[in-house]
Structures are given as C-alpha cells and as structure tokens.
Amino acid sequence: MRPLPLTLALALLISHAFAQQTPPDAASIMARVASNQDQSESERLHYLYIQHARVISRKGKTVRCEEITDSRITPTTTGSHQQIVKLDGRLLVKGKYVTYTQMPNEKNASTKEEDVNVTISGDDETDRELVENMRKNLTETKSKDGIGSGLFPLTSKSQAGYDFQLLGRERINNRDVFHIAFTYKDKSDFGWKGDAYIDTTAYQPVVVRTTMSRKVPFAVRTFLGTNVPGLGFTVIYAPQPSPSGDIWFPISFGTEFKLKVLFFFSREIILSAENKNFEQTHVTSTILPAEASAIPHP
Predict the structure, then answer these.
(1) Who contacts 4 (Cβ-Cβ below 8 Å, separation ≥6)?
(2) Helix, strand counts (H, E) of the chain
(3) How distant is the alpha carbon of residue 273 from its chain centre?
(4) What beta strand segments (E) does the chain contain?
(5) Rounded Cα–Cα distance for residues 178 and 229 (Å)
C-alpha cells in the first residue's frame, strides 16, 4: 500500500483532532442523559438506603414546627416504600415547644410537655400537617430515589416538554461538567426552568437547580389568595459503586420557599434530605420493625 501524501495525512489528522474537540450540542447531551437516567432508574431497584430529612415550617423568624426523620427507603417496581425508623419533632404550642417522636396516627403516639396542659389545635395542628405533607409530597413518591418525580426534566419522558441550551463547561464537585440551561416549552402552563450540570464523561447529572417557569398569575393570587414565591429545588447526584458500573443516585435534595394561602396564612417552608448508607441487594427485601434498626442522627 502506498503511503498517503504528507499534506493529505496532515489534513486528516487536523480534521480528526477538530472533530474530537467539537463539543456536543445540548440536545445530544441531554439525550444521553435521558438514556442514562432511564437505565439508572431501573438499576436503583436493587438499592436500599436511609434518607435523613429535615422539614421546617417557619413564620417570620419563628419556627412553628420542625421534624427530623430517618427513613428506610426500599425501592419497588413502581416506586419506593418509606418506613420512618426515627422521628424527632417539635411543635410550638402556646409559646412553648412540644416534642414528639411518633406520627399522630401511630399507636400510643404522644407529645411531651411538662409545663403546660397541651391542647393542639388550629394553626398548631396546621403547621404539623403542613410539615408532614411537604415531606410526603416531595420525598414519598413513585420515584425510586426518594425525591419527588417530575421535579427535574432528566428522563426521556420528562425531557419532551423542555428546551435545552448549552452554556459552556465548568468544574463542579471535582468533576468537569456541561452547563445546560432548560426552560419549559409551554409558556402558558406551569413547569420548571433552571440549570443542569452534566458530567462530561459519564453524561449523568452532578447538580440540578430549578425554579418555577412562570409566576402564579395575579388573577389567581387575587382570587384564591394563594402564592408560592421562590419555589425551586436543588439536587446533587453522585455515583454509587456497582459490579456492573457506577449507578448515579441523588444524594442530597433541598428547597426553601414561601407559602401564602387564603390571604391570612403565610409560612416559609424549608426542606433538606440526604440519601446515605446505600446497600445493594438482588433479592426480595423484607422491611424490619423500626425498633430493630433505628438509625442515630449524625
């Protein structure tokens, strides 16, 4: 075989090098992310873990209710099952904090307050219900990763409603990432907008931040007295070792926003959750009684 002319060989080398350096566009990056996320969701079925969560309802600077929980997360074929193994709660009643360690509907559930005859009603009970509902709605869902499904447009199903734009490359959490901005396509509906930082090698999310794609319309706020300014979420992902390759999981999740309902009820909601103590299993799992596996707070 005759060798290629020098000029042709150089041209081919330059062309190859240029092709290697040409960055992918946002659509192709997110398509790979979607494929990886779809695969990760199925692989998460084989992991058990603990979710440490803290939820606060605050009025001004005053904490009205706070719950800190450790829950065992057991993924199922349709989502995940959460079992609270430890609960530390406090609720402001008549100017003093009542502490509790069980849900109100649990057998022998009680509150502890030595100085007052505790009667929980009105706003007090509302704050406790608000905290518990927020935790359930944002963590106890059909997803297998302990975070509300539909909050982040990463899977192939959810990406269809979004537009993506590549803003550049950065370095976050010791990883080289693509910085992708996303917006909701339907400008007349409510969705999310925000930023996704995608690992340049694994094509998995490292950090995702979202806010509402549009404000609650003024007419709705006026007529119903409802508003949620500042609603948005931040989630951090990291790989978990696996014999078949790293499986990426959300390891922390947080949000802080204001909730205004019916003109007179206003609260600031703070939620943070950490997934930890991952354990891989390939057999059917049995959920043990809470007292057999209470996890101490770090």
Answers:
(1) 12
(2) 5, 12
(3) 8
(4) 47-59, 62-75, 80-93, 96-100, 111-112, 162-172, 175-184, 192-199, 205-212, 232-240, 247-261, 265-280
(5) 29
- The whole-angstrom separation of Cα 35 and Cα 237 is 16
111-112/162-172 β-pairing: unpaired
Identity of the amino acid at 293? S
Helix (H, G, I), strand (E, B) or coil at 194: strand
Element (H, E) at 42: helix 26-43
| 180 vs 97: CA distance, rounded Å | 44
pTM of the shown model:
0.72
Strands of the sheet containing 62-75, edge to edge, are 111-112, 96-100, 80-93, 62-75, 47-59, 265-280, 247-261, 232-240, 205-212, 192-199, 175-184, 162-172
Helix, strand, coil shares of the chain, percent, nearest 5, are 25, 40, 35
What three-state secondary structure class fits 244?
coil
The Cα–Cα gap between 57 and 124 comes to: 11
What distance, in Å, lies between the first and last C-alpha atoms of the chain? 69
pLDDT band, residue 65 (cuts 50/70/90) = very high
Q: Tell me the CA distances in angstroms from 131 to 54, 71, 227, 229, 267, one per residue in order.
A: 9, 15, 17, 18, 11
| Percent of the residues in the chain that have a pLDDT greater than 90, as a whole number | 25
Beta-strand relationship, 175-184 and 111-112:
unpaired
Render pLDDT for 204-249 as a digit per residue (tens, 0 to 9): 999 998 876 555 443 333 333 343 444 578 889 988 877 666 788 8
Nearest to 55 by CA among 251, 288, 252, 270: 270
